[in-house]
Amino acid sequence: NNLMAAQMTNAHRRFLQVLMSNGITEGSEARKLHQHCCETDKVYYAHDKLDDFISIINSHLQPLFMQIRKGISEDDGRAHYAVVNLAETEVTKMASDYTEIELELFRKTMDLIILSENGFASSTDILNLADQLKTKKMKKKEAEQVLKVFVEDKWLSEKNGEYTLHTRCIIEMEQYILSNYQDVARKCNICRSLAIQSQVCESCGIGMHLRCVRKYFRGQTEPRCPKCNEFWSYDTP
Question: What residues does the Phorbol-ester/DAG-type domain cover (predicted)?
Answer without folding.
Answer: 173-225
